[in-house]
Amino acid sequence: MFLGSSSPATYSWKNLLIRFMTSKPQRVHRIAETSWQSAVKKARTMATSTAADSYMRDAFSHYTDYLNGLNDKRERVVKASRDITMNSKKVIFQVHRMSLNNKDEVLEKADKDLNAVTAQYLSRLVKELQGTDFWKLRRAYSPGVQEYVEAATLCHFCKTGNLIGLDELNANLIPLSAPSTESLQINILDYILGLADLTGELMRLAIGRVSDGELEFAHKICSFVREIHRELTLVAPLMEDHSDMKTKMDTMLQSVMKIENACYSVHVRGSEFVPLLESDGSSFPPLPLDIN
């Protein structure tokens, strides 16, 4: 076999070598192109992930600031509610100092104290709740509002003999807020719960009036408390916060029974005190009452 001759095997080997050398640049180009596409895709994925992480951080930072602000506001609202409760109780205590001889003076002082509670403490609560959803923080300020309703209705009843309405109470709150914002409004639930507490104070007031001989006023209180109990008996089952109201209704019934027992005791045993009546026959001396 001569060197210049070529066999079929040699030709095939050369042909494969030529094909490999010819296709190598194309393969290198494809590999480079694939690597570049992978790098671009990876960079794009990293950029998208970074943007998503930044968005999540901003969102959580916003929620953190909102919740921290809401918690701080709740603490301020709780403090304002406690101040309203404390000073409203002082108004109620002032009303209980009332007697036959100093009624006008005591009620005038109680009315001034109630106006001070409205102007100083309730106004602070109104300003704290401006521009917010009142129901979010209702549990924080509800006890103070209920005590304020109790004090306001007690003063109004002692002066006029009537029950102050919810609309009239809310009308007193409108001047406390800025004209451009929605004012805090006492909701019907807090108003009813405040009325339920009012009956306990009226029971104490009625017992005191019986002891001072103001029987007509005591009978008026008895009729008033009966009417409140009768009306709330129809409303209580329809209330959402029925568990709390049920306890108040049981206490209210006990207050009604105590007032009735005191009035009936004087009515039945009144003849025992006829010789001790004053010259004008307008009042009785303090009575030894057996009240359960």
Structural summary, described in words:
It is a single chain. The protein has 292 residues and is mainly α. It has 2 domains: 67-186, Translin, domain 1 (Methane Monooxygenase Hydroxylase, Chain G, domain 1), CATH 1.20.58; 187-271, Translin, domain 2 (Methane Monooxygenase Hydroxylase, Chain G, domain 1). 74% of the residues lie in helices and 0% in strands. It is built from 7 helices and no strands. It has helices at residues 8-96, 103-128, 138-160, 166-171, 188-211, 215-235, 242-269. α1 packs parallel to α3 (138-160). It is elongated and about 140 Å long. It starts with 7 loop residues before the first helix and ends in a 23-residue tail after the last helix. The model is unreliable at 1-6 and 273-292 (pLDDT under 50).
SSE layout and pairing:
Blueprint: H1 8-96, H2 103-128, H3 138-160, H4 166-171, H5 188-211, H6 215-235, H7 242-269
Family: Belongs to the translin family.
Protein name: Translin-associated protein X
Subcellular location: Cytoplasm; Nucleus
